[in-house]
């Protein structure tokens, strides 16, 4: 008779799996990363996880976006200081995020990290192809040639044929439709330029691509549809330098720089811009829903915060590169810009509940890391301290005249307090040391 095993069913409750969830992040190179997060994890924790796994040396330029389920599909940015799961459950269509460039720059030299520059280049290429960055046929061909050099390397006539390159998406639909000859003429012009780029490194091609794209219309801009007080349809463009207001039916735009804006105010569906100039009246606009108006207000705060940190970091870098020599650089414009914005923050406090001053940001932006080698170069150089025997002789005035020697090795000084006093004696003149000798001895004993 065979034995029968009676297995008891165990009802175990896995607390770990209940308090954690997995989220998929789409990358700029069409890849994806899955992150396991806690239900209380903030948005910046997910971004930090992705940046570390990709090796992004400058993650402060990036953000996480999702597709909103309110109204028509629209891309929205994750708030980095709020719990991520709660945001997605309330706002997003799914738990799928996308890594994108959120904060754009005006100088490609600010990107020092190679992996960061590569992903920045992928973002701009995507914006060009999707038509968010506008360019003519000549600019499109030039960008396409740099893109081919960056991705394929030097031109190979046997491999990089017209038939092979036609399979790659290099031009936007608007540029193809605007050109009378279509995609064939654009591709031919791009191949001619591509041939002349032989010998150019792929990293240099990415940098040249970015340096051209930063000067094109639509670069680093997010647009939103709204109406003015006269019920005219307009669009608001939020960029790294300020707010652009354009009218759909006429070729008329207004641009308000961040340094010229004293405050942005949101109340329900209304969005208002207050300027620094006393004689200029506030500009007021109306959105279709209060949710969009509040989102635009938060986006203005985050972009203004990044602008302030960008201006201050530029000032520090310029002063560091010039070794604090005022004759080498002119930083008056940068100082004036920063001071104006700081005065605006001090004089324009919160007006009402969701109309806070633009200095308070719900999107924390990580400041760029400062080159430590540059900071060390700015420190004054000190003479090395003497060894232990010489220090004791000098302390008790037992050293012979003219026997003050200095040595590069400071490891022989065993007493911390004595080492501090020795270092002070090396940088203080003999007259001051004689005057301070009694005070030092009284403080020690």
TrEMBL record:
Main location: other
Subcellular location: Cell junction
EC number of the protein: 3.1.3.48
Domain of life: Eukaryota
PROSITE patterns documented for this protein: FERM_3
Keywords noted in UniProt: Cell junction, Hydrolase, Protein phosphatase
Gene Ontology biological process terms in this record: animal organ morphogenesis; neuron differentiation
Record-annotated FERM domain positions: 21-311
GO molecular function terms noted in the UniProt entry: protein tyrosine phosphatase activity
Protein's recorded name: protein-tyrosine-phosphatase
Gene Ontology CC terms, in alphabetical order: anchoring junction; cell periphery
CDD domains the record matches: FERM_B-lobe (cd14473), FERM_C_PTPN14_PTPN21 (cd13188), FERM_F1_PTPN14_like (cd17099)
């Amino acid at each position: 008779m065979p034995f029968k095993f009676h297995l008891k069913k165990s009802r175990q409750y896995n607390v770990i799996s209940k308090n954690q969830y997995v989220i998929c992040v789409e990358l700029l190179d069409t890849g994806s990363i899955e992150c396991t997060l806690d239900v209380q994890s903030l948005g910046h924790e997910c971004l930090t996880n992705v940046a570390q796994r990709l090796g992004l040396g400058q993650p402060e330029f990036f953000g996480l976006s999702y597709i909103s389920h309110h109204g028509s599909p629209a891309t929205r940015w994750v708030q980095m200081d709020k719990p991520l799961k709660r945001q997605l459950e309330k706002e997003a269509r799914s738990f799928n995020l996308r890594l994108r460039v959120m904060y754009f720059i005006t100088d490609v030299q600010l990107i020092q990290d190679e992996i960061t520059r590569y992903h920045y280049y992928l973002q701009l290429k995507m914006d060009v192809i999707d038509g968010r960055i506008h360019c003519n046929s000549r600019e499109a061909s030039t960008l396409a040639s740099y893109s081919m050099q960056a991705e394929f390397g030097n031109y190979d006539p046997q491999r990089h044929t017209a038939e092979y390159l036609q399979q790659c998406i290099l031009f936007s639909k608007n540029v193809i439709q605007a050109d009378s000859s279509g995609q064939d003429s654009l591709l031919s012009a791009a191949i001619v330029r591509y041939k002349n780029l032989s010998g150019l490194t792929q990293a240099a091609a990415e940098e040249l691509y970015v340096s051209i794209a930063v000067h094109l219309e639509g670069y680093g801009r997010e647009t939103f549809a709204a109406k003015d007080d006269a019920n005219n349809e307009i669009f608001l463009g939020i960029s790294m330098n300020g707010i652009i207001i354009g009218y759909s039916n006429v070729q008329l735009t207004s641009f308000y720089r961040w340094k010229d804006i004293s405050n942005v105010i949101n109340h329900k569906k209304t969005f208002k811009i207050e300027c620094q100039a006393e004689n200029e009246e506030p500009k007021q606009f109306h959105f279709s829903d209060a949710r969009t108006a509040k989102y635009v207000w938060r986006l203005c705060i985050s972009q203004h915060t990044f602008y302030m940190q960008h201006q201050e970091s530029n000032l520090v870098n310029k002063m560091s590169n010039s070794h604090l020599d005022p004759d080498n650089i002119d930083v008056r414009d940068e100082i004036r810009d920063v001071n104006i914005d700081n005065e605006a923050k001090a004089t324009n406090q919160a007006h009402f509940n969701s109309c806070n001053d633009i200095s308070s940001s719900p999107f924390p932006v990580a400041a760029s890391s400062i080159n430590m080698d540059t900071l060390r170069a700015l420190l004054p150089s000190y003479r090395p301290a003497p060894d232990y025997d010489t220090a004791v002789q000098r302390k008790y005035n037992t050293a012979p005249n003219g026997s003050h020697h200095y040595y590069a090795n400071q490891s022989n000084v065993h007493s911390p307090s004595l080492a501090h006093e020795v270092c002070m004696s090396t940088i203080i003149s003999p007259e001051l040391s004689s005057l301070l000798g009694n005070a030092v001895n009284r403080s020690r004993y």
